[in-house]
Amino acid sequence: MSCLDVPVPDCIRRQARKSPFRFLTRGDCVALDLIREFGAEFDRPANEIHKACMLASGYWDLIVILERPRKSHPYNASFRDFVQNCDTLKAVDELIQFASKGSRSIHTVTVLDAFSFSPPKPSESGSLPTLRCYELAENIIKHKGPKVVLCCWSDKSGESSLLSHKFMSQGVGTWPPCEKIAIEGTDVLAIRSFHPATAVCYRKYSPCTRMILIYHFVLAFGYLSDSGRSFGNYPQWAEYISQKKSGVGKPRPTNLRLSLTSKSSEKCDSRLQSIEQAIKKVECIPETLVNDIAAQHLSEPSLQQIRDLNPEDQLNFFLQRLCSKNYAGGALPLVKLCLVLKQSKHAKKEKMTPLLYTIGSHLASLQTEPSIKLLTVAGAAHSVVNQPSQDDLVEKLERLTMSKSYLR
Fold it and tell me: Which of 61, 71, 222, 367 fits a 20 to 30 Å CA distance from 108?
């Protein structure tokens, strides 16, 4: 199973929950009236107001707060085309469907813009008074009375007394990700997420960023389904990838380290540095696979051959490494490999991508566990010189088998 164009390992997938059945409330209706009145006051086009209402017409229990729409939207299009035409909204819809196991979508979850009807940049003409935008968001939150708010927006104005500002993002990798905030005597779970565009538009090659975003949406539906009983129970891997992206400390669990002596480590570091410099054009290649190559103590001629390969052949080489030996990595390297393959012009990527999705989604964990052999494939490794054909790579991926002891 995949989400946001990457395979999702079992450690995240098994936490997805179906949403409890909901009814629309009076607060849901009042929220739409507030949006219509606000849009009319500032002379916004009718189709723009209509789309804002459609985004906000979901049930009261979960609110996703975004910020500032992109420069142009096809407001005249159908709602489906409107969503599919925007990378952010398309990602939100996919995240909701994945995390709720298909029981909800962007049609049934409230999506708000913290800067309603304002242009992408606050300095542009047509900007609305930001304080009024904040007040609108605050009133909608109060009337809907959500159980969970996914905080995907930020503001540098310094305002902190407003209710809407209690539901702001604090950056990628905020830990712990959840906080309970009281609204008129009722606790609301604030999940400190980040804008989806960070993952799908700006950090295209970051597997951790996508995994964190998926995890935040999974957290939201998990909280709704168990009435908050799981609050505060976070898996270790979630803390690891969050702190890795936020830069808080440098957590590196023992099971993520290469089993090398100090002398071997120095050699490995030296070779790693050479490889990393050599493959700048594909610097998004999974670190785990690069480590694996360095750990093999390849001779300088072999390293030089890697350096001389063009980007597509370098990608083929890393795919070959995955296919031709026991793979002891977690899902993160495969996630990154999928992201690289998606952006490449590899001739066989249409066939390879679904295979990588299948392999990655069947792995039990995100983290690398060098002592565990998860994947095996018949046949010895090719040398760097004897590169396999692209058809051979597809065939090898199809034959890749997995040890059931370490799955699900």
Answer: 71
